[in-house]
Each structure stands twice: as C-alpha cells, then as structure tokens.
Amino acid sequence: MTQNQKEVRTRIAPSPTGYDLHVGSVAVALMNYAWAKKHSGKFIVRIEDTDRKRVVKGAETRILKTLKLIGLSADESPLVGGPFGPYRQSERLEIYHHYAQILIKKNFAYYCICAPERLDKIRKEQLSKKKPPRYDRHCLINQETVTKKIKTGIPYVIRLKVPSNQEIFINDLVRGRIVFKSDDLDDQILIKSDGFPTYHLAVVVDDHLMKINYVIRGEEWLSSTPKHIILYQAFSWSLPFFAHVPLLRNPDRSKLSKRNNPVWVSFYLQQGIIPEALLNYLSLMGWSHPSGKEIFSLEEYVSVFDLRDIQKTAPVFDPVKLEWMSGEYIRKLSSNQIKSMILDFFKNYQNKNLPEPLIEKTIPLIKERIKKLSDYGDYCQFFFSRPKEYELDLSDKKELLKKIFHELKSISDWKSEIISRKMTELAKSNQLNTGEIFMILRVLITGKKVSPPISESLVILGKEESLKRIEACGIS
RNA sequence: GCUCUCAUCGUCUAGUGGCCAAGGACGACAGGUUCUCAACCUGUAAAUCGCGGGUUCGAAUCCCGCUGAGAGCACCA
C-alpha cells in the first residue's frame, strides 16, 4: 500500500440551502477536521448543490467564508481547489452520468418514466395499508418499452435496483455493527429528471473519486447508508469507514432547527461570540476531553480527539454555556488582543469605526465583564455619547447633585482613587451609604444602573466631560 | 405505520463488573469580596444511573423485555 492510499481523508459536504453554515455542521466539521489533522491527512470541503430548487443565493460564499472565520481551513475545496476537483457537485454532472451508465450496464440500475402523480398514488395506497412506501418497479418490468420511450425525449429518472433478500452490514465506528435488510429499501432515484444526481449517487461517486476513507457525518444519514453500501458494492469499490455522530438537539430534544434556536454560525459571530470558544464548546457535544478539561485549543483537541470516544447520545445545544465559554476566552486574551477584536467586530458587524485610544483605555474596565464582543456596546456606549435617558429619577436630588458637582470640580488631581475617596467622604458627611452616592454618580454619567467601575470611567471621560454631564442634569 | 438508533443531576458529561451510598462543568441558590454589574473565592440543592426482570459473591457498567425519546422512510440534502 502506498503512502497516498493510507492517507486519512475526510470531508464535509454542506449544501447551500440555508442562510449560512449550521452549527450542527460545524460540530461535524470539527470531528472531520480533527480526525484528518490528527493523522496528518486531508480535510476536504465539497459543496453539494444538486438540488437546484433549494439553492440559496450567496449561501455557498457565506458557508466558505464562515469556515474560514472559525479557523477550519480546508486542504481541498471549491476555493483552494485540489487534485480531485471540481469540488462543487453542480460542476460534476458528466461524472455522475458516466457512473450511472455503468450501473445500468451492470444491471444495478434502471430507467423509470413514472409520472410523479402515479408515484404519489401508489405511495398513498401503501401508506393507507400501513406499509412502508416503496416504488413498485413498474418500469423495471417494462424496461424495453421504457428505453424506447426515452429515446422519443420524454423525461426519465434512473433508479437503483436494490438487490433482494440481502443483509447489509454497517460497521459504524461510533455505533458498532448494524444490520439492514435490503428488502426494506426503496429503489432510490439516482439521477433526477432534471439530469442532476440525488445525494445518494453523488455522495458515493464523489467520496470514492476524492478518496475519502472516513465518512464522518450526522446520524440522520444512518438509515440511508445501506443504499450507499449497495452502490459501493455495485461499483466494486472499497468501503470507507463510517462514523455516524450524534445530532445536536433543541431543548425539546428534536433535531436542532432554526425554529427553536438560532442555528446559523453567523448569528453567533454577529453576537461577538469568540470563534475559538464556539469550536471549543461544540467539541464538547458528544465528546469530552480525556482529562476532563473543558477549555482547550483546537490544536490540543486535534491531538487528543478519537472517533472511538464519541458518545452515542444526542446532546442538547446550550447557548448559555457557549456564552460562558466565550467569556472565558475573552478573559484569557491580552488587552491588546481584545482591543483589536473589538475594533474589528464593530467595524465588520456594526459598521462603526471606534476610536482606538479610547477603546484601549476602557479594556481593563470591561475585560472581566463581557462574554461576547457585542456586550462591549452595552457597557461602554456612554463613553461615546451622553446618556439620552436615565434609569433613575434624580429630579428630587438636586441638592445632592450640586454637592457632587462641586466636590468633583474641586479635585485637581483627576485620579480614580481620589474621586472614590472624595465620594466616600461626601457620602459620610451626608449620612448616605457609599453605594448610594456611587449609584447616583453612575446614573448621572452613564444613564444606567449597571456600568463599569464609575471612578475609573470618570477618569477616562475626563474632568471636563464628567462635569458637563452633571450639569446636563440641571445643575449650575 | 415500518426500519434503525439512543437512554447517568435542568443542560453538557465522567464512568467499560468492585476505587460510585455516582465525580466534574454550565446554570440555579446562599455567603464572602465590592461603588453597580461582572470577575474571583466558599458553600448548598440537584441523577433511587428510564422501568422491570435476569447473570454475578458484587451491575450505572453484561443479557432480555418494556417504556420513552430521536432519526430516516422524497425526482431534499
């Protein structure tokens, strides 16, 4: 066996039929990526765009961009190319037809010209008799007349001829040995009447031609795997290893869907969830670090990941823990890193150019407080604009506001320790809790009851601006 | 309905026959610290390991049944 044949090659095959990459796809992508990298193999991205009706404009670009943003770079893809391209199924139509013809010649497939209405009818009949819906092979029996009719130009499909009375075994790396009976399988359509292949044909042909030897995919594919195995066998191709990994769930335990949760990765990136944290969190879905660690780098994940450690149970996706983890990542970053991330974030997602020197000063105040980059806005808006409304009614505190104003005005050395001390003294001399006076000052300056430490904030704002804000509340 | 899969705290999980009267993390709650909110520290509650049988000296771990949950059953992927 040559080195090349032994190389581990994995892939993800997203279809551009949603807005963006699905978080569940990232979870699967991570495992594919890790398994390939762990073995110094190749991680491939193939776009499965064979359903022309469902293709969403711009989705492919977004998916590829998102993959890049979260740091799962492909060795071969529509963007970077590779030796087994094209990596977009819509550009491989001749290939699928070629292989479909081989199946016809080998008597593993046949033409079918049944109208959708007829198929609907027999399906309904079978269902009403509580039988699984299956094609009745009407065209297989009349294959000669069918081929004649096709030559006149009427639309047709090509169906897989599922062998009868066979047992098909899947040796799944996650689930072990699973048996299916071929008689339970439908004669799956391989080539649709629009000339495009269905998933089942395309995936087998492409995985084989692209030398994919580990098929790591969601458990939703488990029940169609026997069809794929039949195809591999029909072509006399060697099987890849299969690993069907658990699906992410909604809190109600159904398959994670946009109805119950935001599922597009871009949603989380727009929130300013740290991409590394997203990967780290997702890696913990159905798997755990051998030493019990929760926070670790992608590099470390790759080194300790093992397909055999994947759990069989489908986990519930928990955005709360994801946010916690994002916060953990932020706290581990240097102030400089946070600064540039915030700058980039507001530029890319909110189209705002924030002033760098000011951002820099605020970082120490918010570093321990934010979990995602968008939180920065909630905490620090007041640095950039004066409050428009106040969360506390200060109209009956004019006398106190005056005292605060004059106390602050008298400070010549504008430092947070001095401001704090003066305010504490003021509280004492007025029989107030220090907390009360700071709260009033906080609302005065930020408009909010929750903010970064207020003395430090005053220093950043500067004495002049701070006093102006108090004046704005009707103090003279 | 049929086929397949799965089953440990609310959630993510550790656990592969004795170290488990089940450990960690998120979340919740309480306390400490504190100018608010966080962060940090301490602590509390939280799983009779879905249920019932077996195997065994011994079972969360093995076997069987039941129940529950999920996925698939398209000219969608």
Rg measurement, Å? 31 Å
Structural class: mainly alpha
How widely separated are the two ends? Answer: 88 Å
Count of runs of 4 or more consecutive helical residues: 21
CATH architecture of the domain at 92-245: 3-Layer(aba) Sandwich
Shape: elongated
- Provide the β-strand percentage band: 5-15%
| CATH domain class of the domain at 92-245 | Alpha Beta
Low-confidence stretches: none
Query: Secondary-structure element sequence?
Result: HEHEHHEHHHEEEEHEHEHHHHHHHHHHHH
Helical fraction: 40-55%
* Oligomeric nature of the chains: single chain
Structural account:
The structure is a single chain. The chain has about 475 residues and is mainly alpha-helical. Among the domains are: about 90-245, HUPs (Rossmann fold, 3-Layer(aba) Sandwich); about 335-385; about 395-470, Orthogonal Bundle (Arc Repressor Mutant, subunit A). The protein has helices at about 5, 25-40, 60-70, 95-105, 115-130, 140, 145-150, 200-210, 225-235, 265-270, 275-285, 300-305, 320-330, 335-350, 355-365, 375-385, 400-410, 415-430, 435-445, 455-460, 465-470; strands spanning about 10, 40-45, 110, 155-160, 165-170, 175-180, 190, 215-220, 240-245. It has a three-stranded antiparallel beta sheet with strand order 3-4-7. It has a two-stranded parallel sheet with strand order 1-2. It is elongated, with a radius of gyration of 31 Å. It starts with a helix and ends in a 5-residue tail after the last helix. The mean pLDDT is about 95. The protein binds one RNA strand of 77 nucleotides through helix 5, strand 6, helix 8, helix 13 and helix 18.
